[in-house]
Amino acid sequence: MVTKDETRAAVARSVLADPRVPSDDIDVLLQEADQDGQDAVKTIPLLLIRFESDSEQNERNSDFAGFDLDDDGNRVAEVYERQWEGELIVEVWTAAVSRFDIDELGKTVQSVLYGFDTKSSNDPLIDENGDEIDDVWKFSLTSSRRVDDLAQTPTVRRWRNIVEVYGSQQYKTPAQSSLDGVNQPDVVQER
Predict the structure, then answer these.
(1) Nearest 5 degrees, angle CA 154-CA 11-CA 115?
(2) Nearest to 81 by CA among 13, 171, 12, 21
(3) Residue 166 in 3-state DSSP?
(4) At residue 48, what are phi and psi to the nearest 5 degrees?
(5) Which residues lie across from 80 on neighbouring strands?
(6) H or E segment to which residue 76 belongs
(7) pLDDT under 70: residue ranges of the chain
(8) pLDDT digits over 157-167, tens only?
(9) Is there a smaller number of Cβ atoms within 10 Å at the N or the C end of the chain?
(10) What are phi and psi of 129, to 5 degrees?
(11) CATH code of the domain occupying 4-52+83-166
């Protein structure tokens, strides 16, 4: 199962693994860039990947999936599955006078993301071990366009991709301990 944080990291890893993307030159940020400048050490071109702030996990959507067993077959945890959905923002930032053209780089990332689209070729996202992630069951590129903000950042050029993502994660809770025996109090009957 996969969390939203793991999904962001997997998208970054999968995009940078594509040979069409100049991965050696791109810095990655897996959160919204902060206003206080703590992310100022990042260089451009930058791949910014974040979930839209209002896309939350559905806390009511938790289904019992089974038990986690130890080597002896004893139940050690209850396993629940929670489905989630969110709007993933994948942006490419570069400078106005950079050797990287924002339209070319943005369209390249768009093409890579489209490969993961579950309606098209459905290329798999990969985890940190290089294994496929199966728990993102919908990945749909809904929008891709240039979104420069010349009033706020006149020298930064941006390309934004919006992806609708659905996935699920499992979590475990301690299992109820089994009853070994029941001690019943002695019952005295009055006559």
Answers:
(1) 100
(2) 171
(3) strand
(4) -105, 125
(5) 64, 171
(6) strand 75-95
(7) 35-37, 39, 53-61, 120-122, 175-191
(8) 999 999 999 98
(9) C
(10) -95, 0
(11) 3.30.2000
